Structure formats: structure tokens, C-alpha cells
Amino acid sequence: MSYQKLKEQIKSGDFSPAYHFFGPEQYLKHYYLHLLQSTIVDEAFSAFNLTVFEGNADANAVSTAAETPPMMAEKRLIILKETGLFSPAAAGKAIWQRLFTDWPSYACLVAVEDTFDKRSAVYKAFSSICLPVEFAYRPRGDLKAWVTKKLGKSGKTMSRVTLENFLDAAGVEMYGIDAHLEKLIAYVGQREEITDEDVNQLLVRSIMTKEYVLTDALFAKKSSEAYAALQDLRMLRTDPIRILTVIASNYLSVMRARALLDSGQPAAAVATALKLPSAFLAKKMVETARKQNADSLSNAIHQIRETDYKIKIGLVTPEAGITSLCAALLM
């Protein structure tokens, strides 16, 4: 929504009176906020021409900032960050409405607000002057191009297959992808090509936490691996309730995947429907679901719920309950 228009305005210097930034992709949101700030405000005069409000912004204070003309510049920039001004409980509604109805031409406002009600009178007044920009997670093609560009700047390369595997493991958030990519670049050192083995060593293993290693072994009925992973978790002082939560979440995901596969859904659609934080984990759940049957999964869910109930009412300690559950799931 208006993402392309924002890019065009920054390039031309013909800015909207106001912008509404929202959406889950924080990397791009912060990138374009910084780009707007550096384009509109001369750093030497930022003390005079830049005002930032974060948290519960006072309507009168924002109004005063908007009514203050810029110094030695055409515009002044006002940034609001998660102030809640578009929520039903926002204070000073009349002041906000009046401000947005008569917004000064020399001021540019950026509201970074993920919580908003389009039906509110304040938002309706604001929408008359703002360009709404939604920062959604980027399509796979955009992420490939972005990663390839960053690799080129670092003098590194990846094959197409490795790039696909990397994005499967890294997820969809650009901050996360960027961090994983920097680790990989540092990991390979002077070597130019980043290989599948590098991705498996550095990313896949980090995603496959001990809890996931445990549930992987439980699904595969590998007793020695399951008990070794459980012992590792205890040595790490992992909360038993967290272990139970991860086991329950993974079994529920696999059960849902099994049901979708049985209904005739293709594997790719099933992986997307699971809405897991990583495409790698989603694909792994689908692969696991192929090897399970609905009855055994239903029985496993029943045993998990029984264990949860017994722990909650004090029939067993969390540690003993987890151990008994693992034994039952391995049968």
C-alpha cells in the first residue's frame, strides 16, 4: 500500500504532508524512516527542525511543534512512534482533529503506529493529509534480489539452491535475514562461495534447538536421541513447562499438517498454512506429518493433555511428567 509511491516521493523530493508507517517488516520501516529524516532534515539543524515523540505523546506538545516554523530550511519533520493517538482511548481527540484539519505546509509528519482504528475521528482527519505505507514482509523474489546484492557487496556468492535453503532457514524478517547473512559471511572468512554445508552448519543447527531435537527424536521413535536431548535440556536448566509447550506445539502442527495432507492439500500449501516462523521448520513438519498416521497423532495429543493436567493439579512433578510423557510417545 503506497510503498512504491513513498520511494518515488523520496527520489523527487515532493513529500506528502504526512505519512502513516505500519506493518510487520521493521527493517524497511526503520530504513525508510531514516531515509526520510536524512532527506528532509539537515543534520546541522536537526535540533531545530526535528522533533520525535515516542510513547504517550501530548497533543498540545505536538501541536506546538507543528506550529513552529523550520529554521534555515523549507520543512521541519515530526515523528510519532507508537503513541497510541489512533486508538479509541487516545486523549486530546479534539486537538488532534483540529491539528490535522489545518496542518501547516512547512511541516511533515511521520506516524509510526501499528495500532490504529480507521473508524476513529482522529484517524479520519489524519488520513486526509497522509500517505499510508504498509511495510509487509517482502515477496521471496525481492528477498532473493536483496540478499544477492548484499552478497555482491561483500564479495561472496551463493548458488540458487543454497540461496533457497538459506531463505528457508532464515525466515522472512529482513533484520533476521541480515543478521544470519552477516554471520555466514564472517563464518566463511576469505572463501568466496557460501555453500549448503555452511548454511546447514550455522543456520539449520541454530534453528533446531534442543527442544526441536527432542521432538524430532520422539516422532522418529529414537529413544537414545530423545533421552540425550532431554538430559541436555535439564543440564541447561530449561523450564519443564517450556519443554512441554514445545512438544505440544510441534505435535499439534504435525497433526494439522497430516489433516491438510489427507484433505488433498499440496505440501507447499500445507507448509504455508502452518504459519511457523521459519519455512525450514514448516517443511520439516510437513515431512514429519507424511510419516505419521492420524490415530497415533491423536493419541499423542491425548497423552500430552493428560500430562499437562496431571502437572497442573500436582499429581506429578513437571520433571517426572515430561519423562513419563517421552516414554509414552516413544512406544
Spans where pLDDT lies below 50 across 5 or more residues: none
Structural class determined from secondary elements:
alpha/beta
Shape: globular
Helix and strand pattern: HEHHEHEHEHEHEHHEHHHHHHHH
Strand arrangement in the largest pleated sheet = 2-3-4-1-5
Q: Helix tally?
A: 17
The tally of beta strands, per DSSP, is 7
Percent of residues in helical segments? 55-70%
Please report which band the strand proportion falls in: under 5%, 5-15%, 15-25%, 25-35%, 35-45% or over 45%.
5-15%
Instruction: Indicate the radius of gyration in whole angstroms.
Output: 26 Å
Distance between the termini: 52 Å
- Mean pLDDT across the residues is 89
Largest sheet entry: 5 strands, parallel
